[in-house]
Amino acid sequence: MARELSKVQLIERSIIKKYRKEIWNPFIEGVKNYALVNEGDKIAVCISGGKDSMLMAKLLQQLQRVSETSFELVYLVMDPGYNEVNRRKIESNAALLQIPITVFESNIFAVTDSVGGSPCYLCARMRRGHLYAKAKELGCNKIALGHHFSDVIETTLLGMFYGSQLQAMLPKLHSTNFEGMELIRPMYCIHEEAILSWVRYNDLEFIQCACRFVDDYTHTADGIGASKRREIKQLIKDMKKVNPDVERNIFKSLHSVCLDTMPGYKQGGEYHSFLEAFNKAKGEENETL
Fold it and tell me: Which pLDDT band holds residue 72 (cuts at 50, 70, 90)?
């Protein structure tokens, strides 16, 4: 008689079996292609309590079990001022998923709430700074965030449509304020649709926003509310009706930018115009005449 699997075992099995093509394989692809996890790493897996970071924790946990590469994981939860319901939900989900979280407190929500207006940008910067600092204190050399494939596409389009810039989201980067620390995005190649499907399949429920104002967002299906990002989500959804490959094409285009055709670009914070190469080529041409 086959042994009955526990809830967490069924959840873990679903990642490897049912969602192998949609979740596990893209996860492994991203880790390998972008060299995100290396021998001797100690990675702070930053858990906000949402679906993305919780799945990321399970993926890295499973990778640690099967990988020949030796690395450590710390499952880090920063409480920036959650209400009691959200705090309990994060803790209960961590227990259900058998993720041994380390929780630390901060007053970020109180600080950002006092500035007025839209506190999102300040909140995001403060949260990342606190996570870097705590991770370094715990001896980690990397922090892992749960941004996924769909975040990459949406961020790129948001920058183009509302920020007047063509700027992508990198799979990893060096910290500018914490020497020796890196940020990695292990879910870089995983579509949000697959994550949502995995959540529904396992009958899981996560907080929808790592924010004290979460109640303002729960009336929308994607947990984002009436925002520019939601507009972009809907735009992509509409475009996929005509071209199902639109997301993949945008993603691939970010990996094959042709600077020779760009009228301008930035590198290392410095702006460059196509005229630099154009005039240089013209000068060299004149020298040969």
Answer: very high
